[in-house]
Specification:
Length: 273
């Protein structure tokens, strides 16, 4: 075998991928099971997907989850990108250590502590819990992940490109939108996808900050799983897996095309074309 790729590494990777993805594959397969018993295969059927379309409570929970995910991921991406730019481009300013700690605190803070803190805040402010409180909670939780991803890209970015743009008369704001942002866009997109996925997956924070009429899909699934797993749950989980997978594929293709275009533009500029 090639140097650095031993049988131990291959075996470890194989067992690791099997451990991670075999349960997901089993879930997808049994979502097409004819039997209501999820442990007994009784033949191929798509009846549970049709039944899912008639389950209004599940559909409402899915719609709430998607809206919260898109909105919170978008807000978290904007705030996380601005936080990353501040930490990388403005090395010295009063309160930088405190600001950095506040941005990255949710990374190490247990979800239970964050959820309880937000619940006490909303109760103290007499804010009705529902869609917007869940969105605020998810934005608070995912913003730090976006900041980490974007910050790592900004650190490796060649600042001479920004300096050249400003030397040619561009303002700092124009330089950011026309030079910096296009260069860090793959990291921004990756941060958005990560924030969206974390929002879809969250149960603890949503459980603390939810209210009447704002039940997310993880909460709905968890409440039904306690009574027993049904094929409908397998079906809705399969749909979520498909949505996330398609989103990741589209984002990956877009990032690769943008990177290829950037390389072509750099070669043309270097050759004076």
């Amino acid at each position: 075998m090639r140097k650095g790729l031993s049988w131990f590494n291959v075996t470890s990777l194989t067992f690791g991928f099997v451990f991670l993805y075999l349960p997901i594959l089993i879930l997808v397969v049994f979502s097409f099971n004819r039997s209501r018993l999820v442990t007994v295969w009784a033949g191929f059927s798509t009846q549970w997907y049709g039944s899912l379309l008639n389950n209004q409570q599940m559909l409402d929970a899915a719609w709430v989850t998607l809206r919260v995910g898109v909105l919170s991921a978008t807000i978290a991406t904007v705030l996380g990108t601005l936080a990353a730019v501040t930490l990388v481009r403005y090395v010295r300013f009063p309160g930088r250590t405190l600001f950095s700690g506040m941005v990255f605190a949710p990374l190490v803070m247990p979800d239970v502590i964050t959820g309880l803190s937000l619940l006490l805040l909303f109760v103290a402010m007499d804010v009705a819990r529902g869609f917007w409180t869940i969105t605020i909670a998810h934005t608070t939780f995912t913003m730090c992940y976006v900041a980490v991803v974007v910050q790592s890209r900004l650190i490796t970015l060649d600042r001479s490109l920004e300096e050249a743009a400003m030397d040619l008369g561009a303002t700092p704001l124009k330089t950011f939108f026309q030079v910096t942002l296009p260069l860090i866009m793959p990291a921004v997109v990756a941060g958005w996808m990560l924030a969206f996925t974390l929002s879809l997956d969250d149960l603890v924070l949503a459980n603390f900050t939810t209210g009447v009429g704002a039940t997310t899909l993880p909460i709905k699934i968890y409440s039904q799983v306690r009574l027993g797993v049904t094929p409908e749950i397998n079906a809705v989980c399969t749909i979520l897996i498909a949505i996330v997978s398609v989103g990741v594929i589209i984002a990956s293709i877009g990032v690769k095309r943008r990177e290829a275009q950037r390389i072509r533009d750099e070669r043309l500029a270097a050759t004076g074309g």
